[in-house]
Amino acid sequence: MANIINVGVTADGFINTDRQTIYNAISDQLQAAFGAYFDTSAESPDGQYIGIVADLAKQCLDISEEAYSQYNPNTAYGIGLDQIVVLNNIKRFVNTPTTITVELDGTTGTNIVKGSRIKDDNDNIFTINNTTILPSSVTATCTVTGPINVAANTVWTILDPVSGWDSVQNPEAGYSGVTYEEDAALRVRRANSTTLDGTGPIDAIYSALAKLGLEFVTIVDNDTEKEVDGQPPGTIQVIVKGGTPSEIAQAIYQEKGTGIRTYGSTSQTLFDSKGYEKTIKFSRPVDTPVYATVNIKRLKGSSNDASTYVQDACIAYLNNTKIGDTIVWSELLGYIADKVDLISIKSLYIGKTANPTSTEDIVLASVEKAVATTAGVIVNVLT
Description:
Shape: extended
Distance between the termini: 75 Å
Mean pLDDT: 89
Strand content: 25-35%
Number of helices: 8
Number of strands: 23
Largest sheet: 7 strands, antiparallel
Low-confidence stretches: none
Structural class: alpha+beta
């Protein structure tokens, strides 16, 4: 076929074609060999034979193109994609349980064995991952796989009581499991893990953390000689949502390099290859309530639900901002105006306290994540 039409693997990628083009190419070759009067019409016996060959050739081309695409992480799927990402030391998440970090308290020295059960307010049961001695902070894993929403401070019931074990609590929300990581999500995780691999300690940390499938990662590098937003000079602050403290700390420790100090609100103790204790610090995002007051006037033909639409648009914009973003007043104003028709926005006020009266941008700290609710976004319809 390569001598008849240009198909298959080329310098520009894989070239496919349609069945009719293949049919015409075979017909032309036969007529060139046997004469113009050689009947290759679809109704003739030779034409029907050409049609069968064209169908088979088209099937072969389609199968070949599909196989070719499995070598490209942007087009590979299923097992083909699994085989590509394993080269980056990544495996697809399948039937992964939700995990939480819990603080165990009671009589000092009390032994809590691996597998001890605890329960949250929604009757989800978790087991302690490793044997520990009180007081302790450990990871616990849900007994069922798949995504489960575990809010902070909702795990408090001890199902396997031990003398001296008084309490359990989860100071942070859990890291939700997954039933099956879809191809699109796996491609993104692979891309994040390879984009910056090996170009420096900061980029290497990004790469290592990306392989964990975390919801959010950012790194603040204070390479100045003074404190910035409470972060000491010469330190890095890794801000991460998702994952267990131990796996996060291990990824940071392996890539941060000698002499680079870590900073953050969470500390995790590790041991190096020689048994020496190392403390790695990082931070979790802090949900920060933000508020807005919008005064609008409905124009002719506007919906009776215009105020609800304005509220929904405002909340969507605020909640979609990233951790540490600055909420720009003018951008929020433009977003609402673009999303809701036939209204006139008379005034917009935003801030970190209820009933705001400011038109200044909201500057969030590096660990802050804006959270807006219907109670905090007030829309007044002026007459």
